[in-house]
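Dear Dr. V.,

Thank you for agreeing to look over these. As mentioned in my earlier message, I'm a first-year student in the group and I'm still getting used to reading structure tokens, so any feedback on how I've presented them would be very welcome. I ran two proteins. I've put each sequence directly above its structure. The first is here:
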Amino acid sequence: MPATLQKAVCHANLRNLWVAALLAFSPGLQPAFAAENEPAAAPKPAANAAVQVFTGARILTAAGKTFDPGTLVVQGGKITAVGPTADVEVPAGAKVYQLEGRTLIPGLVDSHSHLGVYSRPLVQANRDGGESSGSVQGIVRALDAINPFDPGIRMAHAGGVTTANIMPGSGNVIGGQTIYVKLRGRTPEEMWLGTPDNLGGLKMANGENPKNAYRGKGGEPLTRMKVAALQRQEFLKARNYQQKWKKYHAKLAELKDGEEAPEQPDRDLALEPLVEVLEGRRMVHFHSHRADDILTVLRLKREFGFSLLLQHGTEGYKIVEELAQAKVPVSMTILDSPGGKAEIVDFIEECGAEFHKAGVPVLINTDDPITSSRFLLRTAAIAVRGGLNEEVALEAITRRPAEVMRLDDRVGSLQAGLHADFVVLSGSPFSIYTRVLETWIEGERVFDLNDKSQRLYQTGGFSVADAERIPPEPGLLRAAPAGEAPVPPAGAARATKDSENFAIIARVVHTVSQGSLKDAVVIVRDGKIAAVGPRADVAVPKNLPVLTAAAVTPGLIDASSLVPLAGEYNIPADQDADEGSNPSQADVGVLDAFNPAEPLLRFLLEQGVTTIHACPGRKNVIAGHSGVFRTHGRTAEDMVIRYPQAMVFNLGESSKGAYSGRRPTSRLGTAALIRKSLLDATSALRKQEAQKKADTDQAEGNNPADPKQTSEEENDTTAEPETDLAKKHLMAVASGEVPALFMAHRADDCLTALRLMDEFKLDGVLGLATEGYLVREQIAKAKVPVLAHPPMQRVGSMETFNTFLGNPATLADSGIPLAITSGAESYVPKTRVVRHEAGIGMVYGLGFQRALRSITLDAAKILKIDEQVGSIDSGKTADLVLYDGDPFEHSTHVINVISGGQVVFDRAQRPRIPLAERMYYSLPNIPCCVGF
């Protein structure tokens, strides 16, 4: 029998058995809809399949055991043995894979994903994760929208993800039926892991997303009260519906010969999944962020007794005792920074550790595409930085979600009898230096870093037509531990915010300009760096206060950011990056919207960012003046370093269609608008210069006035000052007095920017340059520096679809001056952290020193502030960051920040909210946007 026909027969037979089982054990159901809701099972592997042996690696089983070195034996898609290499017998004839120096972990289980229903690219045609025709959508199924050929699935393989819970979005109070899938197969049915007693999940949501999805559309809900009321009402309907069917089946069972059968109830496809929830065959996956919203979820759970997995649980740490008592697991979505919506501004990276300490089961997800699936290991590393044990963190993305979703008899750990789903890593799971080398599903390799075409799903650029434009694989990096902070001199006081003069002693000082100095000292006096060097060469004066650290770097520079013009709440009150009245805003400047009190600014300071290049947004073709500021100070004037920094021009998708029905509506129109504006400025500048020359000549007698002029007014040829502010600012750009910063993602837009710079002889800088690696020779020839996009930006729109993690390295290798930035985000996270973005650039070809330069000295040079900041040199401003480990490692904390010679952040003095009081620290309810 052909394999395809055998598979079909197998599916059909299993399907019939499941339907029979449902009828036998679920009296509330009947054949017509039981069969429709059943998944098709994957075929059983052949018993005589070849044996595969993976040996020599450190094996983390996620089942409480570690084997180092260990051996894993696979046959027919299942694990037949796993244990210490010395104890596991290698069957004769087996294919052996030698994995010495590698780490082997279970395939990752993503408990919250939108793969396939929000396919790449994230254009409207691919947005099928939410039905927005009404707030109650129990009838819809993720099954019917999954695209098995979504490139995001291949990207997930490249990140080690093998199993996922694919869900509708959170814009509805009941969003629809989720589906548990294995990321293999060519149809949703082949991917489905459902069984008769575990059909998947039901997505529900409360809080800002469902409450605002229908605001202004005449729909409901508009309040949290109504959200809960609608959910409660649907469960009551479902309970009544369930009873109708039970009574119907009871009457059928009691029917005697000759008696007329009772009338069958009408089916309701919207209520049937809720009945499955009430029967325990479907789990509720409840999107909930705020502590009060989570308590509402627990209230509903008590009322209706459903099985629950809390999704997000951002403020769950505030009510951790209630969660523990209810025995509710939490699937956390973890981001590098707060903001983007009001509900997540109170997130703390210690949340996972608090949950685990209290006995709340911890799961970690990507919420793909909020975080790309290829970064799930990295996401879990944030929880490790927050204090979560590494073993527990690994379980949070493997065994624990498998247990909660009742899939642990097949996936989630490395044990005999389970599916052979595993990942081969280059090192420890949560290190920045670790790469996913291979991913296996049921004994078949679905990702191989050595395969160039597959590698692109990890690095990016997988859709580039000319693969030759993708640079070669840079190879693996190895971590160089910084060591622990040295012991301070006996009797030395600790430097504080009041210390004007102090010393810093560190295992390694990364000066940037002079390389890295081991066992070194930095002396700070009167706001400046007084001395730097090895401890053997630089004496620490007696009685000088001291700080110690594992590592020290210059203050970090975010060379292009929307902070603080785009605030963490993401509401009109804190959004001032885009003036939305017309596409030409040359007269505006960020100084007039710079908010020193914006919480995101303080957050970035505590991440080591001491200097920020604040830019207007991406909406307008001519966006206005940017400026360079300190991240610490009382007023914008106190904090300004260089203003104006540049005039910002936006090319591409965001600006060409910002004003419906108004110019520009195309890239042609965008370039024309800029060209005309610059031409007008150049013409005005030429006339101004001509007038100045005429005035000078007349004053010197070289050009006497026309004797026919009789009045004093006619003889006055003095040029009036320019009063058109927009024209005045553009004239400064045309003269080279103010640089021109062109923001462009796509390669063609980058070339347009270079063309405009050349045509008008501008002092030009290129921003973002997502596809810069495709036109690197042209950028290098133009000698234009690049403020590059954050490497971990979403592979979302058509403009970022070709995001490539090696872009910074490619540009730097081409001799292009480079700074890595936080870029611009419209949703969560509202800002990125350049230290983490540069870390990714480091691993994908940039290397440690160049990565550090990209957010310190090289950024300072491009911004023309390198005489003040950017390196640790005597005489420069004392902007410094102290760490408890390698600055780029995921688990490393910033322990101190010095700005202008003042200790402005001390992690040891960071206020901690007592557990008993955390509930009272909720932030105001401010409406926000609808998302995932």
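The second protein is here, in the same arrangement:
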Amino acid sequence: MKKIILFLFVFLGMGFGARAQQNKADSLEKLLSKKLTDTVRVNVLNELAFAIYPINPEKSKEYSSEALKSSEKLNYTKGIGYAYVNMGLYFRQKGEFEQAFESLSKALEILEPTSEIEARGNAYITLGLINAQQGNFAKSHQNHLKALKLYENANNKEKIAVCLANIGSTYLFQEEYTLALQYYFKSLPVSQSVNDQWREANCYGNIAWAYSRKGNYDTALIYFDKYLVLAKEIKQPTGRVLIVIGETYLEKKEYPQALEVLRESFASLEKSKNKYYVAEVCNALGKTYLGLNRSDSALFFYKKALFYAQAVGAKALVSKSYEGVSKVYQKQNKIDSAYKYLDLFIQLKDSVYKEETLRKMNFAQFTHDLEKKQTEITILQEQNSKEVIARNLIIVVVVLLLSGTVLLFINRNKIKKKNNLLYLQNIEIKEKTEEILTKNNEILVQNEELQQQKEEIMSQRDNISVKNEELQHQKEKIEEASRSMGIISEIGQQITATLNLEKAVMILYQYINEIMSVDELGIGTYDPQSQKISYEYYIYKGEREPFFELSIEHERFSTWVIRHQKSLFLGNVHAEYTTYIKNLDSYSADRPFHSIICLPLMISERVLGVVSIRSADKYAYNEYHLDVLQALASYISIALENTSSYQLLKEANKNITDSIRYAQDIQQAILPPEEEIKAFFSEYFIVYSPKDIVSGDFYWLTRSQNKTFVAVVDCTGHGVPGAFMSMIGNTLLNEIVNIENITETNEVLSQLDQKIRLALQQDSRRNQDGMDLSICSIEAMNDGFQIIFSGAKSNLIYIQHGKSYKIKGDSKTIGGIHKEKKLTFTKHQRFLPAESLLYLYSDGFIDQADPEGNRIGSTQFEAWIKEVYVRDLPLQKEFFLDKLRQHQKDVRQRDDITLLGLKL
């Protein structure tokens, strides 16, 4: 099964039944309404906070805060401790781990000296859950064991079941699935024995999850069904569990089933406001939609996941989100964006891998220390048991001797009177004495045996001491390996971070040349179609060799490695080569070598190429050198894959960009040329700024029946889709006004709406594309100009005698699906004197955001017009561009911008 890094711990917890907790909370709230003494009220508040937190966390926080405040006034230690435990539960539920740690640490500091088992156990469990969610499994395991010991001493079966399940989950995340299942199956019957249906349901979920991680998907789904049936019966929230069910369907590539489950999970978890879980389900939904080829939805959920994952600092989730966003952009042919997120993913992926490896090593060390301590405890228990037996036997002998003496004293007078019984009693005493002596002898023998055993134990302790020294030595080796791994990881990160393969090869050569003898280093890329290995980067004694190729059929070590997809490690080539190739004829006699390591470069069972190092010395390399090169080979494979992907993206980007720039030339051709505009207006300015080379905005100018028509149009979308709509809009406006001779602006808009809907077949295809626009007809009169304006979700601003006026267009858009057979628009008529100014604009300028996300807005835009209208129009253009730059700063343009200023 492909590894799934979830870190959900969806089935971990304290073990609450929703109905039972609600009933308990109702009873406690009734009790709280009565008159209670100070400490009793604090206890009720704490109990109520604990009971209600799974179903109403915010209310739980209120009760905990009140309990803490009252307890501090009363100096009531127990109340303070319980309140901090409840605050820790609340913060953990909200995913605010730092505050949770602080509260729980304070609780344990206060409660540790007390006998408050329940509160201490809950604190340890919650700490264990947080440790697990942060990836510190050794610490998580330790905290759950502390809680388990407390609850076993108290014989609290409900909490024993919780601890067993939580310990199972720490094993689960270490990929110890068999051990995880053992603990889950231990927890299940304990939960059933106390009729804890909440915990029983979670046990089924845990078991299902473990089987899913093992790749036993069908078995997993059987147990998930058991979980869902019981969870719905007891009204247990299932949002978190459904994530894992959805992931299971994803692994089976059953995307519709996964989508159904994950949608239900998202609806539930979004209400909980737990950022960690929302991030996880959004990543899963992104992957599902990508599998269904619904890239827009996939991008939405991946970006939502990224937002929440970054908010809680979950690196593994952030890495998964970066990878998902990159894949979506690649599918959408947005090459720059795809590369940007691919680069972020590569940078973070190595850090996540390194942290995960260190966590595994820490957990392995913790498990070893735990087993060592358990062995020592067992030895001491056996020794103490034998010493106790010896002491007890000696006590028996002493008691018997004392008893005999007392009997002799008591019967002293009786012996005188009963001489006839003396003989018999003497015989009896003699027999008892002999029996005691026999027992004494037995005790002596046992003492000798115990002494011998003691000596054996001391010998065992000496052996344990030796083993501890060996373990310490092993630990030092592990630490050294960890340091080496850190260095390799840093080198690997440098290799994968660059998209320049030549640079990656030189980084690799410099590093391995420091730790081993390297006369030759070669990295070849394999083309399965041509069946050739290309060596563009081959270094001999520090110098780069010319490019050369090898057929896969050549008798070479590198070709053998690729054909068999196996590593090759030789210390005496001339004595060992026949195992792999028939002869050494392909190798130059001028470059003799005796040692070689040759490894295939692979990703997901796909061969990308080969890496090899050679030395003229015999047995120049050892197992350590092999391990180092194998570790680096994985990074080289990633570098090859990244470089290949980048080149493909770069080439695709160039082709797409070239096509779009050609489309830009075509679009520019439909815009009115400056000579034509100057023929109609003595003074004007145009701010025209497409967001993505080509634009969904356009401006239009024509003359018909002694009237000048001017329009600014904002089509649906931007970039290429918007540009297509602009071409359609321009063509239809020319047809309506210049061919059909329709000159009433409101009728122009009505006709444009009908023609757009017909052209895009919107009634049958449910297409919603359209456009917003403002259009004016201008007719010269003897003493001024007749202006007629109509607008579809667009306005006109004009300046007359130094005052600013705005005419609002209708709140209707052109095109799309609507009930009316024919849209009607309003015709606004004004008479304006010469020197008046007109401003037509799309909403792109107004909607532009600053770094904080604040729009320019209509109010600010209109204020700028009032400020600048007195200047010449070319200067007005510079004014608006300066204002736009000052507001926008480094923020990327969010929409196409068009602004026309005209003087009558």
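From my reading of the second output: The chain has 30 helices and 18 strands. The mean pLDDT is 81. Does that match how you would interpret it?

Kind regards,
E.
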